[in-house]
Each structure stands twice: as C-alpha cells, then as structure tokens.
Amino acid sequence: MGKFLVHNERLTNDRTGKSFTTGDIVTDDDFPKYILQAWLERGYVSTVRDDDIEEGDEHGSDSLGEG
Amino acid sequence: MAVTASGKDKLQRHMRLLVGGYDLSGDARALGSASYDPTEVDMTGWSNTVMQYLTNIPEVVLDGFEALMNDDTGRAYDVLKTSGGAANLHEVSLLFGGGGEPAIGDPAFVMGAVQLGDMVASSDGVAVVTANFRVDASSVTSFAYPHGVVLHGNTAETATFSSTSVDLTNGVYSLANGAQAIIHVTSAESTGTWTFTIEDSANDSTWASLVSFTVDGTSITSERVTVAGAVDRYVRLTGTNGTATSCTFAVTFAPVIP
User: Fold this and answer.
1) How much is the ipTM here?
2) What's the CA gap between A61 and B10, in Å, rounded?
3) Residue A40: enclosing H or E segment and its boundaries?
C-alpha cells in the first residue's frame, strides 16, 4: 500500500505500542490498511513516493526531500 | 476495552453539575430541566384530517438550577451571582452517574452556555440561588447537540494517561457531523502543564488525535472545543504531563445529531 506522511498530532497503535506524529512516515506494517485508507480520506496521512523520502525519514524523523 | 452505557441507575445524588470548572453539586438542591427542544411548525393543510407538524430549529435549555446560597470562593453563589458580560458565559456539563460518581461512558448534558441571570430566594427555610442557562451565541456558532457522554469523571490524574474508551454506537449518536467537548479543570496542577487530547478510533485499537484542548490544567477553568466532520466509533481522552503532581478534571463529549 506504500508509505504515508503523517499530518496528525498523534497516531497510535495500542497493539504494537507505536506512536507517530506530524512529519513521520508510516506504512501498513504500522497500521491496518483499512485504517490508513480512512485516515487518507480524512487527511490524517498523505501518500508519498519512495523518492520523496530522504534516508532516515521513516519512523519518527521530520523532514522530506525536495522530491 | 470500551465501557457500555449505564442502565437503570441514575440517582439525583450521583448527578453532578459543573459550571466553568466549578463543581456546584455540593450546594445543589434542584434542577428544573435540561432539554433539547425542537420548535414545532404547524404544517396542517386544509384537506388534512389530522394536525401535522415539522420540527424547526431546536432550543437547548438548562433551567431552574437551584443551589444553596454558598458564598465561599468557587461555590454556588460565588459562581452564579451574575455580573454581566463575559462573566455570564459558562461551559456547563451535567453528569449523570450510573450507580455512583459519574464515570467514563455515563450520560452527560453538554452546553456552551450563557447564564440569563440569577434569582435569590428562600426555599424550605434556607437561602437559595437559582440560575437558568441558554446556548451562548458568542461561542456556539454551529449546531451543538447536548446529549453526550462522560469521557473523564471529575477525578484526579497524577501521570500521563490514556483513558478507557467509549463506544459511541451504544447510544443514538450520529457520527458524521462533528462533535463538541468540554473540559472542566476543578483542581489545578502545580507541576508542569498538561496536554489534553480527545482521540478517536474505528477499531478501539488504532487511535488518531481528534481535537486538543488549550487548557493546560494549571488553573481552575473550563473550555469548549468543537470538531467538524466525521468522528470514529470509539473515543477516549489522553493526557500528557511528564512532571505531573495531580490535576482533577472532568471531560464531556457530545456528537452532533443533524
């Protein structure tokens, strides 16, 4: 399903104990696909391409490349 | 796990009225009504054989709250004696404890209110103050349904927490049209500041921030916040404070019914 940029103050998965904030990158390893789809529609996350992401951006870093 | 709605167990002694961050229940004597009352429009035509009506815009009312004329700081007379202007604007939450102190999932009446005055009188040999509330036009700019739930009873937290969730589909709630929520901080934190956030979830497991309060727990106060658009089935309150000592507060939440 790809990778998603977080636009929400806090996204939490109680089952894994992981929590993400604005600027983090999440995948369907972090949340169920249907949840990510719903959040996509509500603007809590947006899709990003692999070449948008600088090395080290995933899971908690806060910057995107120029793409 | 989410709690379920309480049943046939709502006693007056477990009702709590919070006004602007003050719990007036210790002085409370009577409540006239707390109501959501759509006005009626007579739609009966010449050839109809029965009177017909449609509902028009509703009025939200909390009337006839009567309390002992307690003039100590933060008690009924001190809070409800009107001085005009902004002092008459309150966030009001009426909590209905199910078999005990109001707790997560119990019903609540949620209202951004303006107090329309006070009346001091004598009742059963004691001096009482009576107040009536209507929707505050200066802060409530969209339709706000008052019947909701307790997200946090008026109890203390001493460390970062995530509360038990509430399943909103246990009631009659529509979840597509936003919501309002009120926090009442009734005893302030002395160490650090709190961040209070309401989260929602479609599956009671993965959570997103829905709305945060500006109130940080460091003073006795209240705040009403609103949400536009969809709310997921489950909601809960989180509070973060890495250096907390103790903060006592209540939060009520009401989805909008169109």
Assistant:
1) 0.84
2) 49
3) helix A33-42
